[in-house]
């Protein structure tokens, strides 16, 4: 009976535990071991410029701009699902926090793993200082064992005092982002620059697409024109070659005497023949230069033209 | 192999699934883009086990050591192999659901017969959970709360410990019956609170069990069994400490109309279990756990020898002491545990009448080395000395168990 009563007592008392948990004002969002909450700065830290107002979308864009390098590949630090969950509470927490307080978070999401996606955790503390939104990460895409008792294996937050060993991967920077003290786990974002990039990317995108489309169209027109020209040239050259073959045949069939006569023919006639051969050689050379014929074909035709002299 | 040993073996073959569920980690996850996740995890283990033991004293009842049957086997250790499927829902309105179904086979044939097909897949874990900031509600079949942590903190979990019947088709005993009683997997509706500064409570209504003993069995169960666990766990600097207290209570009535000669009335099994573990950052860890109660049984909870021949609950108690040191990837541990059952008036009368002696104490000492080669491969070597003693003079049996083996985990 005593045991039965104990079981019941313990069962009833659990309701009050849960109730107490929900009423914690410093917790802005929580799901089991994941959270966004306000907590005291680490001792000795420079006071933050808190409270600070951001729009949830701004926080979302700022966090979405973060990337991490794992081995040789770059990945976004946060997934869309994670951003959806934490952006708003982080915004709210920053607007509520006092100068001596940080906003901390722990979020688990599906990130690329070795074979497939894996549940990985990201933790850190966020604060606004020197007109920059700063994030010190504790766990950055760390693999987790969901069966572990989180009371014994809590998610560790980032620390200003030193890089955690568990931060194996390195944050990457772009415009408006800088690694604080060159630490791979501490990044400072200049909101204006980062958000301007986001805005410009969003605003310029249609214009950029239009410009690129126009360029592609121009290029296509030019290529079509060139192709048409090349086809015409090729046709003309084929005609010329055919004509030359005809002339060579005619010349070979002509009697010797007339040739002798021709040998004494006036200079302009000889010059005309020489000019024709020269023209043919030049044409042949052009064909080769334009890679319309191969080097071998060029040499063969060249010898034939020269033989006709 | 006796019927009792066969039953013990069969039950234990599936008994440790929750333990494995706690040890394995889902490493292969499919989906996730739409918030739904499907994952699977598991492990396979195998041990080369050599045991030599004394002849079991005559006219004894109870005890889990084979008699004068030196043996070498290739078999599953305390944990069975497992292949577990998990499904997890997206987080919707602060709630997340998940379910798990696990298949648990062993590698060896029962009775050592070459053509015994006893290593079937046992589907012993089937539950779903709903989690939120209110805590966690579990419905289904999972490891019971009472003495659960006593079992989960035992270092022989990844080893062999006491082998039990050498012809068994299931798992070995580890320290079951030699420091704690096996609580098994049972259907329940269970609630677990969130952690309150390290303090957490679980309480559940369990499908009630038959309470059995020496030729008697209380089968009528009007109310569910109650089990609960209050635990505290925290980090002290880089050290980890956890304390727990669990309780269980269940009644069952004898059915005189169905069984001729059954005792009259009802029986109640109840008990407390407790423990403390301190894990230092230096690698040293210390553990002490124990239990006490009545009608618990010596090895399998509420089963076999929970009651005497007159249907009266036997008193049971036991404890486990363990020290281990982990250096880099290797853990060396030494543990001692014992389980005791008192001699009731009926037991005494029986001993006086025909000399039958009931099991009084089962104890064992284990020295083990557990080496993690990497995340997925664990190598184990253990030596265990097990001792059984019965009520009355001159009734003692010892066994030496040496085992080497390993786990592949995914």
Radius of gyration of chain A: 39 Å
- What is the average of the pLDDT values of chain B? 90
> CATH class of chain B, anyone?
Mainly Beta
The major sheet of chain A is characterized as: 7 strands, antiparallel
The CATH superfamily of chain B is Porin
Any idea what the radius of gyration of chain B is?
A: 21 Å
Oligomeric state of the chains in view: heterodimer
Secondary-structure element order of chain B, N to C:
HHEEEEEEEEHEEEEEEEEEEHEEE
Helix content of chain B: under 10%
Largest sheet of chain B: 16 strands, antiparallel, barrel
Describe the model:
The complex is a heterodimer of chains A (309) and B (410). Helix content of chain A is 50%, strand content 22%. Chain A has 309 residues and is an alpha+beta fold. Chain A folds into two domains: 24-189, no CATH class; 204-307, no CATH class. In chain A, the strands form two sheets. In chain A, strands 1-2-5-6-7-10-9 form a seven-stranded antiparallel beta sheet. In chain A, helix 2 packs across helix 3 and helix 6 (267-289) runs antiparallel to helix 7 (295-307). The longest helix of chain A has 63 residues, at 191-253. By secondary structure, chain B is mostly beta strands. Chain B has one domain: Porin, CATH 2.40.160. Chain B has a 16-stranded antiparallel barrel with strand order 2-5-6-7-8-9-10-13-14-15-16-17-18-19-20-21. At the A-B interface, helix 1 and strand 6 of A face helix 2, strand 1, strand 10, strand 13 and strand 14 of B.
